[in-house]
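call fold(seq) -> tokens
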Amino acid sequence: MTRPITEVAVGIIISNDNEYLLANRPVGKPYEGYWEFPGGKIESGETTHQALVRELQEELGIEVLESVAIGTIEHDYPHAYVRLHLQVVRGWTGIPVGLEGQELAWQSSRVLSDCVLSPLLPATISIIELMQNNQL
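ret:
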């Protein structure tokens, strides 16, 4: 039997200073306390961009003006098999705030060994490695 695939919109939010935003997973969620890129599940009938707009409004209180798809990755977690639709977000209004009680942190380096945030969600490590290779 194959596992169901959970479709997820992931926002790689990049500031004018070329920093990217990570969020700490809230208490009560799988992998609580791990750092990840913000985003969430794509609901039936939504495009990836629509899901990202909704999720980032709910989680961070920002309005996404534009996002650019850069690819997908898949990861098999014990609790779910996820397909992550990666979207670079360079245009938004508002100031990101952790509306679900999560901490937020801007990171300047795309080199994993430079990241002081720990632990990183396994798929987040894969995304940072892609960012490092593609110079996002």
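The chain has a mean pLDDT of 92.
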